[in-house]
Design goal:
By secondary structure, the protein is an alpha/beta fold. The chain has 13 helices and 9 strands. The protein has one domain.
Length: 288
């Protein structure tokens, strides 16, 4: 487990796979002497819509250890930026057919007021999947808040030990395991369906944390079109790697662990994995 710092890193929105409605779960049983907590978060939300639920603040302050997915220091930002950008000599202009590339450029100019020159200097070198997600953030036309960062600051202010479940290089590896061909398809799909995605994301922001995880899943299918390679590489394999670390944290501490809600649900989600090891997972009602 690695200590975490305090700088922004671009992180992905969440997926989920069932109709479970709670985003906060108590972990107990299986010989644990203390209760720990597992929270599924959205990665970013509009600043006006952001609020840490009171029960989340309460559980964090009562914990002795707080953990998020990845460290978020200068090194993490640098490594993740490398993973999110094409290597030298490549860009969307070299990877997309000319007609599709012009469609992307025109879309950014019409939707966000970003000129062709500005797009080519700032956005064309971003890989298609992170660019698809960045489009959602740009449409908010307001500052955003990152739940991981805000919760981390809360824990540090309360003088709680903070850790990450993996080094940032592991997330970068998972991103790069998703083939560029599939990412390009996802980008064009997002552009073709952007009005629907905008409406759904605004609805999601206004209703979190009460939206069902299935609704969140339906929204987040858009960027990756539920591609099994991405879901396995980015979510399920990392869940398996995190499981023994979460168990160790819960056995030795009153732990509070925050991850994207994608990691909670499904047959290979953290809830199912913890239950299979004999832990009791109890949903906690979350109100804003």
């Amino acid at each position: 487990m690695k200590k975490v710092g305090l700088l922004f890193a671009f992180l992905f929105p969440a997926l989920a796979f069932s109709q479970t409605s709670s985003v906060l779960w108590e972990i107990s049983g299986n010989g644990l002497t203390n209760k720990s907590y597992l929270l599924g978060t959205l990665k970013f939300i509009g600043e006006k819509e952001f609020k840490v639920p009171a029960v989340v603040t309460e559980k964090i302050k009562a914990s002795t250890l707080f953990a998020i997915e990845d460290q978020v220091d200068h090194h993490a930002q640098h490594e993740l930026n490398k993973a999110l950008h094409f290597e030298n000599g490549k860009s969307l202009a070299t990877e997309l057919p000319a007609t599709d590339y012009l469609k992307v450029v025109s879309f950014f100019e019409k939707e966000f007021g970003i000129s062709k020159k500005a797009f080519e200097s700032k956005y064309a070198k971003i890989k298609p999947l992170p660019l698809s997600i960045l489009m959602t953030r740009l449409t908010l036309r307001e500052k955003v808040k990152y739940f991981d960062i805000e919760l981390l600051l809360l824990a540090k202010k309360a003088k709680i030990s903070t850790f990450s479940l993996e080094p940032i290089e592991r997330e970068a590896q998972a991103i790069n395991a998703y083939p560029i061909y599939n990412q390009l398809k996802a980008l064009m799909h997002s552009i073709d369906n952007f009005e629907i995605q905008k409406a759904e994301f605004k609805k999601l922001m206004s209703s979190y944390p009460h939206e069902s995880l299935e609704e969140i899943f339906e929204f987040t299918l858009h960027p990756v079109e539920n591609n099994p390679i991405f879901v396995d590489e980015f979510y399920f394999k990392r869940n398996q790697e995190w499981l023994p670390k979460i168990e160790k944290m819960a056995k030795e501490n009153k732990a509070f662990i925050a991850v994207g809600v994608a990691h909670l649900e499904g047959e290979k989600g953290l809830l199912a994995l913890l239950k299979s090891k004999g832990y009791l997972l109890t949903p906690i009602e979350v109100t804003k």
